[in-house]
Amino acid sequence: MLFRKDPCGIVCILLTYAMLLHCLYVILFVLIIPLFNESLYGTLNALIICSLIFLSILSHVRAAYSDPGFIPLPKKGLDFSDVTTNVDTNSSLKSNEIGWTICNRCDTYRPARSHHCRICKRCVRRLDHHCPWINNCVGEFNQKYFILFLFYIGLTSLYVISFVIWSLIVFPQSSEVQVIHSIVLCIESCLFGIFVITVFVDQMQSIINDRSLIDTLKLNENSRTVQRILPSKRILFQNVFGSSPMILWLFPCDLKSSNKIINSQDTYCV
Q1: Which SS3 state, helix, strand or coil, does residue 33 take?
Q2: How many structural domains are present in the chain?
Q3: Residue of 80, 82, 128 whose CA lies nearest to 103
Q4: Which domain holds residue 189?
Q5: pTM of the complete model
Q6: Does residue 110 lie within any of the structural domains?
Q7: Which of 120, 177, 183, 193 is 20 to 30 A from 140 (CA-CA)?
Q8: What is the pLDDT of residues 186-209, one digit of tens each?
């Protein structure tokens, strides 16, 4: 289990769990139980919100405490002075046919599209970005869980806003406490929902374009306009979610065999 002592990341994680628990408390104990009096409709909505919160937390835990794809550090220091004497030499290494590069901060070799995270102080395979909300990097091995976290938080936000507004309309005699909690919860859902939906769309575009955020930022103007031949969208999504049936992509469990078995050409032992 990974845990980073990053103050910003710790605060964001605590804030995330606090908002999810507050959402669960308001929907169950402030709205459903007092207003619906254990009716079948109330029970159904209680199961829905509990399932969404559970899947959100489980996805967050898997994204936050899973290995995003850290490149193993060498057991002994390596001497790269012969290939890192100047920038030109290092640049030529980046463009070689294999795609391997050298990280001067980790002092190790790394496969193509790997980048160094200044917060984790490690190189990560297909690093997209370091996300404070999971206090972890988003890389090749945990991108699926991060996307599922965004998906379920967005779905929870939409459900909560719809349910709260509907409850206030159907029960106009709601108490002052219920109204205040409902307003606060709607504001939280709107702000957090808009944020995660925006990031979710960015993640979908990065998969379709087969470029992480860092890959895109490092492209020059000429490279951005170059036409590329990409695999089908289904294959691109399977690279992230696995080759299992699409319905199983919605479960935050490890169904992607490539996370466990890394091709020998993508490993380097020192």
Answers
A1: helix
A2: 1
A3: 80
A4: 9-70+142-263
A5: 0.85
A6: no
A7: 193
A8: 999 999 999 999 999 999 999 999
